[in-house]
């Protein structure tokens, strides 16, 4: 099972949170599943999963959306990693990022959690922070709005027009990270858009 990659899309469960900024990681997982015409199914690790392939004959992908709240994503993520025999360097976490402007994607392996409680909990549960992350920029709120409230708000009208492209690009970033490696994906997605 060395070829298995676990892709974890962070978010909060239930219809109340589906369209919020904090759930953009799960939106990316929905896009990856839709590209493969697959549907999520319940898993005993308190998550919904799709078992699929990057493409025929390539790496196996396990797309996972924890059923837990964001701040306790580590339990489902680590249980799935154990179940599928996936090492931390093949656990890709897709999450929202306040410190990156909206409509921007950054990739990295390891480092701090930047105040993101979902990432913090996964690092604690895996026993290492050395896992790849696809960070989807949501930007910070203007004015004095509390970032904790901002991430739980739905995307604004102007953002919603660009959101499908951002989600598609983030799904592309996940696929390229697995297929061609971190540096190639960074070179493509960190460059300014034309």
From TrEMBL:
Subcellular locations according to the entry: Cytoplasm
GO biological process, one term: protein quality control for misfolded or incompletely synthesized proteins
Catalysed reaction equations from the record: an N-acyl-L-alpha-aminoacyl-tRNA + H2O = an N-acyl-L-amino acid + a tRNA + H(+)
Residues that bind tRNA: 17, 69, 71, 117
Recorded superkingdom: Bacteria
Residues under site feature: Discriminates between blocked and unblocked aminoacyl-tRNA: 12
Residues annotated as catalytic: 22
Residues annotated as site: Stabilizes the basic form of H active site to accept a proton: 96
Main location per the UniProt record: cytoplasm
GO cellular component, one term: cytoplasm
Keyword RNA-binding attributed: yes
Pfam family, one: Pept_tRNA_hydro
One example GO MF annotation: peptidyl-tRNA hydrolase activity
Gene3D superfamilies the record matches: Peptidyl-tRNA hydrolase
The family this protein is said to belong to: Belongs to the PTH family.
Subunit and interaction comment: Monomer.
Function: Catalyzes the release of premature peptidyl moieties from peptidyl-tRNA molecules trapped in stalled 50S ribosomal subunits, and thus maintains levels of free tRNAs and 50S ribosomes.
Name of the protein in question: Peptidyl-tRNA hydrolase
